[in-house]
Amino acid sequence: MMLSISIMCLLSATAVPAAPSHKKAQSLLARRTKDPGYNRNYGVMGGIPVESMSRLGGDGSSHDATLDSNMWTADSQSNKFPFLDDLNPVAPMDSLHHGDGAYDLDPVHVSEYVNPDAFPTVAGKGCKCEHATKASPRIKCECGKKGSKDHYTWLKDTPVTGTNKYTLEPADITYRGGNYWEPSVKAGIASPADRLPEKNYPNVAPGDVIFPLPASADADRVGIKYARYMDQVQARKGECDTISEGCTVACKPGDDVVFEIGNTKANAKVAKAFVGNAMQVTVTPTAPAGAPTVPCAIADACSPFRYCKGPKGCVAMKDIQTHNWQGRLITAHACPAGTKVCATISQVVSATMLKKGDKTCKAVAR
User: Fold this and answer.
1) Please, where are the H alpha helices in 203-312?
2) What is the 3-state secondary structure (H, E, C) of 290-303?
3) Cα dihedral 54/56/57/63 (nearest 10)
4) Which are the contacts of 133, defined by CB distance < 8 A and separation ≥ 6?
5) Non-local CB neighbours of 244 within 8 Å, separated by 6+ positions
6) Cis peptide leading into 253, omega within 30 of 0?
7) Which of 46, 84, 302, 348 could form a disulfide with 42 if both were Cys (CB 3.0 to 4.6 A apart)?
8) Is 55 helix (H, G, I), strand (E, B) or coil?
9) pLDDT tens column, 231-267
10) At CA 77, angle to CA 46 and CA 73, rounded to 5?
11) Distance, CA of 152 to CA of 125 (rounded, Å)
């Protein structure tokens, strides 16, 4: 009897609702015209895909399933904190999608924290070693003086070209954000023909595979999202600035550098160095093919955004908008009438705006 009553209640609860009135249909239509519907974002936890570690594929559940804890039999819910966000989320409209039907030729985004390191502190000096030979059957290593703050678990060996020597340096095994695993996925995008199954990042020989990675004692293991959070916080703590000794490199006249202005980068050459950590750099602007050029001096006040020289100095290019035969808007750039493109630009800037390699410049005379 109770079963019959339950079924009747279920049927009544799932009955088809009545059609909306004409007034309601109009309000829904009006709301739809204001909402394009294709750029919906429900926050960091509700992007595409939900909690997927900023990448297509799993959310670390294969790792977490091996932990000695679950929501049904654990003594406490303290390990089930549901509000921990990824500090490097991917915007929903920037995500890569599987299953578009184009012969399964989709690229894959490999996150910097596919395999986070739960113990991310990497500090200390490495060693310079020499392989064993017949004359000297033992490996010889000269290691840096151990400091009180040294802390590392993994070492990376790097051969010294042309010798039988190699270096051992403390390594960050975070994949792909660390410096241990090779080859790395450039910019995190794997082309369709080069992509690997999710479980093969980082790529390890079958005989060397361990799970989970990194290896740690059972009592020391934590869930993926917690390890990722600790790794990301540590990375932010160790981010380089533009003045610290370990983050700067000497730059002198003749060096090739990268001139960074906001989110714009330009290749440049150092011409002079000045006191106060200032440098004069020379930049070759991108001119339209066949455009006439003129020499420009510092007094012309030119920059990578303003390199059209006129009677009163440099001015910015102008946008020229036209429509092609399909009616599509075409935007081009050209110097205003009466001006010509600079052959080179000379500008004095702070050395903190220049980079050589991955470090910020520090001005030196020679």
Assistant:
1) 224-237
2) CCCEECCCHHHCCE
3) -20
4) 164
5) none
6) no
7) 46
8) coil
9) 888 888 877 877 777 788 999 999 999 999 888 889 9
10) 115
11) 10
Q: Which residues contact 60 (CB under 8 A, 6 or more apart)?
A: 53, 223, 224, 225, 228
Is residue 64 helix, strand or coil?
helix
Instruction: Please name the residue that has the structure tokens 């429509």.
Output: 323
Q: Identify whether the C-beta of residue 261 lies closer than 8 Å to the C-beta of residue 304.
A: yes
User: In angstroms, rounded to a whole number, what is the distance separating the alpha carbons of residues 149 and 168?
Assistant: 18
What is the rounded CA–CA span in Å between residue 274 and residue 351?
A: 10
Closest C-alpha to 281, from 341, 348, 355: 348
pLDDT tens by residue, 153-186: 788 888 888 888 998 888 888 888 888 888 778 7
Strands 354-356 and 256-261 turn out to be: antiparallel
Separation of alpha carbons 309 and 297, rounded Å: 10
Question: 265: which strand partners?
Answer: 260
DSSP string, 74-138: -S-STT-------SS---GGG---S--SSTT---EE--TEEE--SS---BS--EEEE---SSS-S
Contact by Cβ (8 Å): 112, 176: yes
DSSP label at residue 306: B
Residue 175 tokens, joined: 């994949």
Is-contact 129 146, C-beta < 8 A? no
Residue 2: which residues within 8 A CB-CB, separation 6 or more?
none
